[in-house]
Amino acid sequence: MRVGVTGAYGYSGRYIAQHLLRAGYDVMTLTNSIGRVNPFGNRIEAVPLQFDDPASLTRSLLGVDVLINTYWVRFNHRHFNHGEAVTNTKVLFRCAMDAGVGRIVHVSITNPDIDSNLSYFAGKAELEADLMSLGPSYCILRPAVLFGKEDVLINNIAWALRHLPIFGVFGDGEYKLQPIYVDDMAALAAEKVGGDANEIVNAIGPETFTFRELVDAIRESLHLRTRIVNVAPELGYRICQLLGLIVDDVIITRDEIDGLMSGRLYTDARPAGSTKLSEWMGSHGASLGLRYTSELARRQNRLAAYQSN
Questions:
Q1: How far apart are the first and last CA of the chain?
Q2: Rounded Cα distance, 120 and 260, in Å
């Protein structure tokens, strides 16, 4: 069976590709970073993800039996945005159909909502509805927060705890989230390649944290005594904007704060992953947060491999 996966040179896509190769699949990747360091040698064919050339994109998908889609953007920016990501993904879906792809495994988000004023969650809901209307069998995976050696959120919280005397938690910090280990999510995606049932899976980890508990757990794993305080969301956002100027990155957006505080990263479902973040941090605390991980730098530099934290 030939399986296509978007973004195999990036974060989650790389882990998914590793699982597919171990399972014996013939793997190809569609990527916006065709020149990025290739961790797979000649084991994976790489082709450009040409949203602006549907004919070429369709040709690149000929012979692919199953497509795993991880393509998305984290936030709206002057160079990319959720609306563009929705349009591009719809092009990808239709090219897959035209190429005869029989199944699509699509990475979404917990609690997508077409009526949400948060474009991330509304866009993900629009894509789920679009995929379900197209015809091929599908599996929609809904992770909340991914963690792993190349992650952004957990690492950068650790970085802030290491480098700042005070860490601010938005509001009361009682909103919940359920991080899943990136390799667990990748194994799940690879497993769903072999099915034919239409399904939606909440891809959450085995532990539920309030945001305050999460920050406390990261601090404890680092053996730090950084003071953690509650701050008004707008003040916290402004502080993050200032820090963003220092590290040349978008640390967090208002929409991300709203999504976090409104509980969209929590769902009452059975865990799909088995790796506990608390235990993982116990074995990775020495390196966690030693350097800041920039989302923008990854998008601007399409050649360098993603660094492990």
A1: 34
A2: 12
User: pLDDT tens, 147-169?
Assistant: 999 999 999 999 999 999 999 99
Q: What is the C-alpha separation between 246 and 166, in angstroms, rounded? A: 17
Q: pLDDT, tens digit, for every residue of 220-279?
A: 999 999 999 999 999 999 999 999 999 999 999 999 999 999 999 999 999 999 999 999
Task: Please tell me the distance from the alpha carbon of residue 262 to that of residue 31, in angstroms, as a whole number.
Answer: 33
> pLDDT-based confidence at 97, cuts 50/70/90?
very high
pLDDT for res 135:
87
Percentage of residues in the chain with pLDDT exceeding 70? 100
Q: What is the three-state SS of the chain?
A: CEEEEECCCCCHHHHHHHHHHHCCCEEEEEECCCCCCCCCCCCEEEEECCCCCHHHHHHHCCCCCEEEECCCCCCCECCECHHHHHHHHHHHHHHHHHCCCCEEEEECCCCCCCCCCCHHHHHHHHHHHHHHHHCCEEEEECCCCEECCCCCHHHHHHHHHHHCCEEEEECCCCCEECCEEHHHHHHHHHHHCCCCCCEEECCCCCCCEEHHHHHHHHHHHHCCCCEEEEECHHHHHHHHHHHHHHHCCCCCCHHHHHHHHCCCCCCCCCCCCCCCHHHHHHHHCCCCCCCCCCHHHHHHCCCCCCCCC
Sign of CA dihedral 269, 83, 255, 182: positive
Q: For all residues of the chain together, what is the average pLDDT? A: 96
Measured in degrees and rounded to the nearest 5, phi and psi for residue 141 equal -100, 130
